[in-house]
Amino acid sequence: MECLECGEKIIGRSDKKFCNDACRNAYNNKQNKDSTNLMRNVNNKLRKNYRILMELNTDGKAKIAKSRMDGLGFDFDYFTQLKVYKNGSEYRFIYDYGYKLLEEDFVLIVRNQA
């Protein structure tokens, strides 16, 4: 049997596919490269959005100009949950921080204390 990554002869169990951990990791990293890059990029955007919400909302609730959030690099296309309340209000959450788009280009930032 040969290693799926480097082609070296495998010594050991008959069901082994790789000669060592480095080859196994290299092979799996190549196999998952595309999905891993997509997930990494999305997670980076979510992390950045979360940090911005956390920095702007120091009192549990804050009203901020949308342009200020844009200037900080907030990406309004990335959030983890959309909550629509009975009164029709839509809040987009990134984990426990949420925001609601208001009129006149303002954003209401809240924190959902669980």
Please give a quick description of this structure.
The chain has helices at 21-31, 33-56, 66-71; strands at residues 61-65, 81-84, 90-94, 97-101, 106-111.
Low-confidence stretches: none
Multimeric state: single chain
Structural class: alpha+beta
Tally of separate domains: 1
Rg calc: 23 Å
Distance between the termini: 54 Å
- If helices are DSSP runs of H or I spanning 4 or more residues, what is the number of helices? 3
What distinguishing features does this structure have?
single chain, 114 residues, alpha+beta, 3 helices, 5 strands, DUF2116 family Zn-ribbon domain-containing protein
SSE diagram, text form:
Blueprint: H1 21-31, H2 33-56, E1 61-65, H3 66-71, E2 81-84, E3 90-94, E4 97-101, E5 106-111
Antiparallel strand pairs: 1-5, 2-3, 3-4, 4-5
Account of the protein in words:
A hairpin with a 2-residue loop joins β3 (90-94) and β4. The protein is α+β, with helices and mostly antiparallel strands and 114 residues long. The protein has helices at residues 21-31, 33-56, 66-71; strands at residues 61-65, 81-84, 90-94, 97-101, 106-111. The mean pLDDT is 93. It has one domain (32-111).
